[in-house]
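User: Structure please.
Assistant: Input sequence and predicted structure:
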Amino acid sequence: MREAYGVPMTTLGQGGSIPLCNVFADTYPEAELILMGVEEPMGLIHAPNESVDPRELEAMALTEALFLQHYASARG
């Protein structure tokens, strides 16, 4: 994320859950799961006027591509 956003990553925990993750974990117990999503302070996620800045979409797409590239390299 530092490469895509230009700043160090932080973590944020909130009480929500995504039920699909439990299905994946139960179906594929050996799988490694990672969730990445787009959200920025002005996005108003789940509001009637929800939106996401296109720059956020671009940075997250780059983040995911870089993650997969680095992960594949590390696994050799």
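The chain is about 45% helix and 0% strand.
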